[in-house]
Design brief:
With 67 residues, this protein is α+β, with helices and mostly antiparallel strands. It contains two helices and two strands, in the order E-H-E-H. A two-stranded parallel sheet has the order 1-2.
């Protein structure tokens, strides 16, 4: 079975972006051939870079934020 991952950055889980995904899904045809996985970035707290450069000072380049 082939896997398709949908990574959505939209603020609404059932908004226009997902309508486009649904239209694409229809074009792929048979549901049993593909396994669809959805990841909504809205569900995660992801912080932007604050420029502290901790990732450059630490070995392994770990970010200060654990998001």
């Amino acid at each position: 079975m082939k896997k398709i991952m949908v990574l959505s950055g939209s603020a609404r889980k059932n908004g226009n972006s997902m309508k486009v995904v649904d239209a694409i899904k229809e074009q792929f045809g048979a549901e049993d051939e593909f396994e669809w996985e959805y990841i909504y970035l809205y569900d995660y707290q992801i912080r932007g870079c604050i420029g502290c450069k901790v990732c450059r000072r630490k070995e392994g380049r770990a970010c200060l934020f654990k998001d």
